[in-house]
Each structure stands twice: as C-alpha cells, then as structure tokens.
C-alpha cells in the first residue's frame, strides 16, 4: 500500500489538498500538529542524504546564487508587480513572506520522479531554507511599517528548533551511526515519509476552504493570486536558468514554486499579517498541481522528441 502511495504520490498529494479544501474542519483540526510533522519530515529527509555529497553541492556558487534568486530576486520582482497592481499592505506583507520562504523538503522526491538530479534540488532546498530567516526579517521590517512587532527571542528560538534542529540532529546521526545501519533505518522510515507529506496539503488548505464557504468571491481572488504567484515564480526562474540547459532550468523552476510556507508561518506567525494564513492555504492547490502538470509536460516533450528522432531515422 505504501509503495502504491509513493508511486502515485503526485496525484494523491493534490487529492489531499482537494479533500482539505472540501472539508475545512478536518484540515483545521490537523493544522496545529503540522509543525511537529514538519520537524520529523525534515529530519527523515536529511537522514537519507549523503552528507559529503550534499556538503560538496552546497559549496557550489550556483547553489547560493539560486537561493538569492529564489528569495531576493523573486521578492523584488513579485512585490513590485503586486504594488503596481494596487495590492493592500497586508497582501504585500503576505506575498513577501511567501517569496522569502525556502523550498519544500519533498522537492527532491518530485525532481527524482522526473528523472532529474535530486541532489542539486536538495542543495537548493537547504540553501533557500538557510537564507529564508534573513530575507524574511528584512521583508517584515520593510513592509510591516510601524506595525512591525516581531519577537526576536521567539523568532530565533523557532529558527533554532525548526531549521537548525533537524539539520543538527541529522549531522549527529550521520556521525554516530554507521552508514550501513543508518541506511537500513532510513529505509524503514522512508516508507512512512510519504504519509507525513500528505498531511501538509491536507492540513494547510483549511483556511481557504473555510473562506470559500463564507466568502467565495474573496476565496477565488486568493486562489487567482496564488496561481499567478506560482506561474510567475516558475516563469522567472525558468527563464533565468534557461542558459544552463533544459534540465537545469526545469529543476530550478520546479524548486522555486515548491514553498515550505508552514516553516515560515511556524517561525514568524502573526507577524506575517492576517492575509498570510488564507493565502498559504490557497497556494497549496497550485503547488501540488504543479508536479502533475510538469510530469505531463516532460513526458509529452520526450514523446515528441522520440517521435521526431524516429521519423528522422526513417
């Protein structure tokens, strides 16, 4: 059963988001437990990564260049467009929070399902996650105005727990446990990782589902903004990385859309304003629809390429 879920994870993740949207009370009941699930998922993911290869990948300048594009460049472009279109202060604050957010830790699995380099996607994910606290703090400082009231002690404590905690524990496990034994342990844990991943779209989409029942017009507006954000992230990063080849641009673009918004909310909370929570609920739908669309597009392009090759050989 778990193998079946893993094989069709992209489809089931989107279905989980739809279920959370349709049954917001179920989603909202799950929401308080998601930070603990996030911690476990980050730890389990890092346990399965070859540390030496990952450190080597993190030493590449292109990884940190990506993190800069992911957080800083997209913040500047997206917030400028939103401001130009007349977005409210609260909407700008929420959008800036999403722009600062690092990538989902499930991104390497999505990249692997596309038969592309999952290691570089993991490096992108960690680099963007490490850069997130700095960019998020700057964004909050600039866009909150006089209402800025971030509890720095709580902010730093949550950063230590939810970002450096899993990374530090994973490093210790890799140092203390023999690779063969750790691989066996991770192999057993990995079977349940996919179940943990399903809880994110299911548990995060509740606010937009509840909003839909109260004010469908505003909910549609948030959904439209979320789709626009994801399309903008994908298009900008894809174009920037197009010079490095098709695979490199696709990896960067997919990683840019996948946003670990729960981590951002867990770290900054109410400082992100009242629009952030319903907006991150809305953005779950395009985020988890993306793998299905990308996989379909990649397969279609490969089929077209193979057909062209076959015709040229005849």
From TrEMBL:
Coiled coil (residue ranges): none
UniProt KW keywords = Membrane, Plasmid, Transmembrane, Transmembrane helix
UniProt xrefs under InterPro entries: Na+/solute_symporter_sf
Q: Does the keyword Transport apply?
A: no
Indicate the transmembrane segments per the record: 39-58, 65-85, 91-111, 118-143, 155-177, 189-212, 218-241, 262-289
Tell me the domain of life: Bacteria
Family matches, as Gene3D superfamilies: 1.20.1530.20
Name under which the protein is recorded: Bile acid:sodium symporter
Write down the species.
Salinivibrio proteolyticus
């Amino acid at each position: 059963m778990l193998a079946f879920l893993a094989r069709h994870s992209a489809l089931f993740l989107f279905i989980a988001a739809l279920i959370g949207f349709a049954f917001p009370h179920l989603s909202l009941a799950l929401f308080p437990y998601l930070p603990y699930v996030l911690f476990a998922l980050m730890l389990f993911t890092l346990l399965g990564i070859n540390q030496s290869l990952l450190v080597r990948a993190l030493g590449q300048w292109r990884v940190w260049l990506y993190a800069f594009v992911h957080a800083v460049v997209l913040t500047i472009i997206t917030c400028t467009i939103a401001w130009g279109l007349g977005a409210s202060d609260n909407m700008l604050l929420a959008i800036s929070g999403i722009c600062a957010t690092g990538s989902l830790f499930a991104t390497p699995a999505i990249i692997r399902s596309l038969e592309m380099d999952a290691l570089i996607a993991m490096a992108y994910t960690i680099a963007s996650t490490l850069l997130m606290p700095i960019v998020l703090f700057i964004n909050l400082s600039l866009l909150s105005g006089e209402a800025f009231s971030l509890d720095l002690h709580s902010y730093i404590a949550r950063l230590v727990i939810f970002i450096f905690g899993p990374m530090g524990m994973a490093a210790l496990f890799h140092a203390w446990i023999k690779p063969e034994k750790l691989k066996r342990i991770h192999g057993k844990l990995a079977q349940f990782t996919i179940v943990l991943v399903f809880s994110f779209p299911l548990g995060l989409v509740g606010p937009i589902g509840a909003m839909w029942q109260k004010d469908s017009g505003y909910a549609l507006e948030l959904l439209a903004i979320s789709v626009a954000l994801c399309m903008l992230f994908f298009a900008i990063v894809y174009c920037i990385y197009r010079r490095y080849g098709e695979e490199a641009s696709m990896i960067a673009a997919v990683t840019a859309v996948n946003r670990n918004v729960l981590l951002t909310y867990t770290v900054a909370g109410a400082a992100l304003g009242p629009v952030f929570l319903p907006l991150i609920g809305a953005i779950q739908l395009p985020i988890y629809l993306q793998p299905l669309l990308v996989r379909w597009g990649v397969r279609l392009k490969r089929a077209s390429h193979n057909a062209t090759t076959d015709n040229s050989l005849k």
